[in-house]
Amino acid sequence: MAESESGQDKTEEPTDKKLRDAREKGEVARSKELNTLAVMVGGCGALLAYGGHLAQTLMDLMRMNFSLSREVLTDERQMGLFLLASGKLAIAAVQPILLVLLVVAIIGPISLGGWLFAPGSMAPKFSRMNPLSGIKRMFSMHALSELLKALGKFFVVLLVALFVLYKDRDDLLSIAHEPLEKAITHCVQLVGWNALWMSMGLLIIAAVDVPIQLYQTRQKLLMTKQEVRDEHKDSEGRPEVKQRIRQMQREMSQRRMMSAIPTADVIITNPTHYAVALKYDPEKGSAPVLLAKGADFIALKIREIANEHNIQILESPALARSIYYSTELEQQIPAGLYLAVAQVLAYVYQIRQYRAGRGKRPNPLKDLPIPPDLRRDS
């Protein structure tokens, strides 16, 4: 069981963040044996496919350079041209094989772990220069596994090579009795097939190494329960910080709400437990808007601000509770409360007219007939 520096067992699967961070650092499963297998098989396949053309081109190149005339041999300029032409022929002959090797050299690594470019993994690590750390790595379990893989690879390739050479012994001996051109082509074919069979022996090593690399990478990324909790706190926010943020948001919302009370048309109270502040602006909306609401201490504060700014305060427990529970701040009241609120606003406007000396004093019992069934229990 993997164990962290703190002594806790790493029993938890890595989180998505842990996997992303590890990938950014280049810590993904890679198999050198799989890469070697891909390069060897691809190179042998390319040699079998283009080996005949390569052998013919090389023979033509040798024939051209071994049959130079005396005039060419004594002319430095002509020798330079022959050297350039020979180089072009050689490059053109091996180019298909090199392209195949390039492709498989890219496909091999990305077949396990995917495409990854991690500049951070190329940064120098001075801890690797510590001789004690180097000795520790030399005698680690990883070094032992690499040694066993190297020995296994050697013996597997050796056994396959002995079997292939024994099987093709007659063809190898017959090459000595063949014409030169045919012998060269035959040699290329034998080398290609024998190398392919020997490289296929690496398939056993790769089949063992890939699961080992996946397991070791997973074990390396396992986390302790404490690491999971700490990462959750870092990503989601620590509870005390989140609580402080919510508290600040509530305080800001309350300050904004309190600053809007002086613009209200009326304050409707419970009378002591609830208070709501309404404003009606015909130019902005078709219904009154709730500017502020609160219970207990906040309700008391709303009434205090209303008294300071001479805003009309009316007691209507049922209506106050209904608005408090059915309407959010800065939202219009629901349609079911239109009639009751309209009667309240009409009564407030009559009081304003009376105070301005342009009307008679309104009678609350007559001019404020709020239905008694508006109460909404909490």
Automatic annotation (TrEMBL):
Keyword Nucleus among record annotations: no
Q: Name one Pfam family in it.
A: Bac_export_2
Q: Which residues cross the membrane?
A: 34-55, 89-118, 147-166, 195-215
Report the membrane topology from the UniProt record. Multi-pass membrane protein
Task: Specify whether Cell membrane is a keyword of the entry.
Answer: yes
Q: Where in the cell is it found?
A: Cell membrane
* Record-linked InterPro entries: FlhB, T3SS_substrate_exporter, T3SS_substrate_exporter_C
Write out the biased-composition intervals (Basic and acidic residues).
7-27
Please provide, in alphabetical order, the Gene Ontology terms of the cellular component aspect for this entry: plasma membrane
One BP term from GO: bacterial-type flagellum assembly
Out of the domains of life, which is the source?
A: Bacteria
User: What are the UniProt keywords, alphabetically?
Assistant: Bacterial flagellum biogenesis, Bacterial flagellum protein export, Cell membrane, Cell projection, Cilium, Flagellum, Membrane, Protein transport, Transmembrane, Transmembrane helix, Transport
Region annotated Disordered, chain positions: 1-27
Q: Which family does it belong to?
A: Belongs to the type III secretion exporter family.
The function of this protein is:
Required for formation of the rod structure in the basal body of the flagellar apparatus. Together with FliI and FliH, may constitute the export apparatus of flagellin.
Q: What is this protein called?
A: Flagellar biosynthetic protein FlhB
- Source organism: Pseudomonas eucalypticola
Q: Which gene specifies this protein's sequence? A: flhB
